[in-house]
Write a structure and sequence with these properties.
Layout lengths: L2 H24 L3 H23 L29 H31 L4 H16 L21 H7 L6
Helix pairs in contact: 1-2, 2-3
């Protein structure tokens, strides 16, 4: 494989990872998030395969010993099979994670009628609050008890600050 082809594959793998991460961060639809996760996983798997790849110009061969060959005829450089085994394991685990994520998305759509994550979060919080018998939170950014002190005016602030003339 030429240097250009190897560089192209490397750029493609990094592009897949970047697209997947971008989709995870920017998408609000649950199904698109699962697809972005699959893209990032495919890019990571391609990167692992590229790490284990050695060019044929280096004399690397597959780590398979045939029954008719003697040990002296083997070249000392063999392709490392560990990254390939890791990629196969990652593919199997990734398919399982994607199947679980899609089944959870289908269940969420069946229960709430939407795949928008903001709407899902709001409806789930409402369901949890009603099941727990508590009042829903009014705002996530404000303190629970309201403002503890009245606002300080500019004139009162100067008078209370030590070392400033009143």
């Amino acid at each position: 494989m030429s240097e250009f082809a190897l560089l192209t594959l490397l750029i493609g793998a990094l592009g897949l990872v970047a697209l997947g991460i971008g989709g995870l961060v920017l998408s609000r639809n649950l199904f698109r998030v699962v697809l972005a996760l699959a893209l990032a996983e495919a890019g990571a798997n391609l990167l692992l395969v590229l790490v284990g790849f050695r060019q044929s110009a280096w004399g690397a061969i597959a780590p398979i010993i045939e029954s008719g060959r003697d040990a002296a005829s083997l070249t000392p450089s063999m392709v490392d099979p560990i990254p390939q085994a890791l990629v196969l394991t990652a593919i199997v685990i990734g398919v399982g994670v994607q199947a679980l994520a899609l089944s959870l998305a289908i269940r969420a759509y069946g229960a709430y009628g939407t795949l928008d994550m903001n709407a899902l979060r709001a409806r789930m919080e409402t369901d949890i609050d009603s099941a727990a018998g508590t009042q829903p939170a009014r705002c996530q950014h404000a303190p629970a008890g309201g403002r503890p002190l009245p606002p300080i005016s500019a004139g009162a602030r100067r008078a209370d600050t030590p070392g400033t003339p009143a």
